[in-house]
Amino acid sequence: MRKSTLAKLLLPLGEVFQREISPALLEIYWQTLKNYPDALVMKALSSLLKTSKFFPKPAEIIECIEGSPDEKSLIAWNTLMEAIRLHGSYSSVKFVDKVLSKVVEDLGGWVKLCSTNLRDLDNLRSLFIKYYKLYSTYKQGIEGPEVHAGLIELENRRSGFLEDIPEAEVVGDVIEHPALNSLPKPC
Fold first, then answer.
1. Residue ranges per domain, the chain?
2. Are β-strands 169-171 and 93-95 bridged in parallel, bridged antiparallel, or unpaired?
């Protein structure tokens, strides 16, 4: 986010919500939003202009860009279910979402989750969402393993066939900016 672009976006909001955009206020907003692409901030502010009753705080803008904790945890759950369906326990997987990787590890690991029957998986859903929300609030230092080994990799390692370990399947959107890993939601 360019500071000049943010200033141009905040000025009309200031007019609508009768809020002066001082240099100090602009600096606070820019420091908070500078790592997001201009287009995402513009879309979020446009949406917030239509739905907010008060001048939006930086946290509200970020939530509009990234989604709420509930939305993010449901997206992560759906990503996990899709990965289980597509790849199964024989494949090794690498989750783009490091929080998702940590939750998978804490719930017993990839192979165990793939082997869980549907009824038990449905029961794990609420625990998954609880862990995901919790870990998402502590983004620093919350990372699961780089790769969750599948049955083929585990067996080949155990048997000493290290050259026959298949590459892990990448799960999730591989986009450089974390805010782009899910589509912006209307606020």
1. 3-66, 69-181
2. parallel
